[in-house]
Design brief:
Elements (H helix, E strand, L loop, with lengths): L7 E6 L9 E8 L2 E7 L12 H4 L1 H5 L9 E3 L8 E3 L2 H19 L4 E5 L6 H5 L1 H8 L3 E3 L5 H11 L15 E5 L3 H4 L1 H14 L3 E5 L4 H4 L3 E4 L5 H15 L4 H7 L3 H7 L5 H8 L3 H12 L4 E5 L9 H15 L8 E3 L25 E3 L3 H5 L14 E5 L3 H4 L3 H8 L5 E6 L11 E4 L8 E4 L5 E5 L12 H12 L11 H11 L5 H7 L1 E3 L4 H4 L59 E4 L15 H7 L4 E3 L1 H7 L6 E6 L2 E9 L7 E3 L35 E7 L1
Parallel strand pairs: 6-14, 7-13, 8-9, 8-11, 9-10, 11-12, 14-15, 15-16, 20-24, 21-23
Antiparallel strand pairs: 1-2, 2-3, 4-5, 4-16, 17-18, 18-19, 20-25, 22-23, 22-25
Length: 701
Amino acid sequence: MNQHVQTRKGYTACPHDCPSTCALEVEIIDERTIGRVRGAEDNSYTAGVICAKVARYAERVHHPDRLLKPLQLVGAKGAGGWREIGWDDALDLVAEKFLQAEARYGSEAVWPYYYAGTMGLVQRDGINRLRHAKRYSGEFDTICTNTAWTGFVAGTGKLAGVDPREMAKSDCVVIWGTNAVATQVNVMTHAVRARKERGAPIVVIDIYDNPTMKQADIALKLRPGTDGALACALIHIAFRDGTADRAYLDRYGDDPTGLEAHLASRTPEWASRITGLTVAEIEGFAALIGRTPRTFFRLGYGFSRQRNGAVAMHAALSVPTVYGHWQHEGGGAFHNNGALWRFDKALIEGLGDLDHSIRHLDQSRIGAVLTGDAGALAGGPPVTAMLVQNTNPANVAPEQRDVVRGLMREDLFVAVHEQFMTDTAKLADLVLPAATSMEYDDIYRGGGQSHILFGPKLIEHPDTVRTNHFVIEELAKRLGVADRPGFGMTERELIDDLLIRSGYDGLESLERDRWLDVQPDFATAHYLDGFAAPGGKFRFRVDWAGLVAPNRPPPSMGLLGPVERLPSFPDHADLIEDIDAEHPYRLATPPARQFLNSSFAETEGSRKREGRPELRMHPDDAAREGVTDGQRVEIGNRRGEIVLPVKIDTGAKPGVLIHEGLWPNGAFERGEGINVLTGADPAAPFGGAAFHDNKVWMRPA
């Protein structure tokens, strides 16, 4: 006889590195088991819709290959020899190695390294509390957001924009530089609502026919790194045709006269030659937004993946300003809400112990750091001990060969705290099994929306698994800093302190309400009372070197990248790694729909749906090269070379090769992943890795 299993519903937030930060409803089968995961219908941004990979989250939590016991390396690094070790012994070993590194070279020889495997503020950022208490090397985060955030703030003065839910009230939605269907599905929820209810066309601007572009009413496929040229032509047309809102510009623009003069030569014909779009496509798009006051520009993180991304983002953001779209409900622009939260993470990160004289190391240049580049090391000692949480640099970081070579150093001790045996864990000296977000308390905020969300512990983690918070607390005891502020507190106590310290009600209120919407009023969100830049004006003329930005390097690092080559007015900044005789193709490495960076690449559902690593190539390129569908080709540049099968695809643009997703390195023929080919040279003005901005050669394998 079938016995009915009693389940209950739990409420939490998606922890992953996605701007949507969806509110989730989770089926809880018993104290250690979850079932179906759904989007919360009563959350006005999630609106009941989540991506397929998180809907299958039980696959990840209960995966048969999940790490369940601490493992210590036996034999050579990378050879796969492991023995089980108890938690106390494992943590004793980490502390011993850290103290040895400190005794030999000073505290800066230890580098805690982390990123966004979870976006929870306690479990992600608590590693900094240990860093600051012990005066370990700092980490300057450059791998994701820098150029996009910098370009947005260059114009508005603040990292915030129009309420993204207003897309549903738009008469035209422009999705620029983001494959929202694959990476933030809720953007499409609100954009499609505008199309259904208001007849709003959806315009998608990207570099290939990705799933979002396939849903577009107007698809503009441009060459990688040429967004700024398109934006300048749109502004040129606005001034030429009288669709620029001159009254709005007189009130809200810092130098519209100078802008108009600067862009007088940036004609559609000029932009066509750079972008590969036709003049008719550019003119048609300009005409559409010129007659549509309620045009919403949703600007994505594609701007962070190119060397001229800051200038390109600023140029794209200038378009709705020149046309005056900000004045209207459903009009204006949005990228990220980072300025809304006002979070004071003093105890979570141990900011009272922060010493600005301690060096910072560039996260994206981990390869150069670990292989002893003096500049990357800021003139300081070598890194000889690391704790890695929430990231997988052997797979996701640029210049992968240097990263792997550095991690393989015999004099470097690496402890990796992970849920799966990632490419980085395989090269570690010690692997510690980590809890999932369903198994601990944390707090989240939506970069792509306006909610603060509580993510409570819903199930018990396996007995031999530990949270990030536990590891940091236990290391603090062994390293003699457990008496410093912030240590000795539970996750819930740290969350409560964070909320109260930041001017919100405490955890009890947030837990009761599940989330808090901090979206500002209409006038503030649309900058109707003035922009946050000096004088209340939108900055068309930018002093990049003097810009105050959310992720500006610390003074000890200075400016990063060729800042002197950045134009002060919107323009096409010719800083991209363009083709040459030896490297006739551009390579872009955008996200796959079923993976999230390197997360979910281990789950059967995601891998089965993605198939295999492939290189998308336009039929004209394939015919010229004599390459057939499925044929193995070798692509490379000065950083290295890899082998991939070709997928001939009309969705690719001629001269542009596309590889979707971050597959594990072992999924490739030679055991090296796509980031062998990507560069770690900093993008101006404040650093960043240009993952979609690479030149390569190609030949049959």
